[in-house]
Design a protein that fits this description.
With 119 residues, the chain is mainly alpha-helical. The protein is built from 4 helices and 2 strands, in the order ββαααα. The protein is rod-shaped and about 85 Å long.
């Protein structure tokens, strides 16, 4: 839509562009902040301690009773994917680019509290 403004050469149409967040979009913004904070807490409290020497050795050493050959790749994948999710949610929270709404919905639904791809 736009607004008609009288001018010397007749009325001119000035286009109104959306500014800022309003209405239900505020809930999406709050969800993005929650996703970033919860992913940071999850990574710092659960994933990073797994890389301590004693825990890493217990999980990835073949002589350990809890050994599984997939522990190493799984821990690395979890750490990297959590960091990527944190960066994407921070980008979506502060960006105004066009693909952000779809990506925001994906991030909120797949975060630690969501029921998306992570369970």
């Amino acid at each position: 839509m736009g607004t008609l403004i009288p001018g010397n050469n007749g009325p001119q149409l000035m286009l109104n562009e959306p500014r800022g967040l309003g209405g239900w979009l505020i809930l999406t913004q709050i969800g993005l902040y929650f996703t970033f904070i919860s992913m940071a807490v999850l990574t710092l409290n659960s994933i990073i301690p797994s890389f301590q020497t004693d825990v890493w050795e217990a999980l990835t050493s073949p002589s350990s009773p809890v050994y599984d050959p997939m522990w190493g790749p799984l821990l690395i994948f979890e750490a990297v994917s959590n960091i990527v999710f944190m960066l994407l949610s921070a980008h979506c929270a502060i960006s105004s680019e066009r693909p952000v709404p779809a990506l925001s919905g994906f991030l909120i639904s797949s975060g630690p509290g969501g029921s998306g791809i992570r369970s």
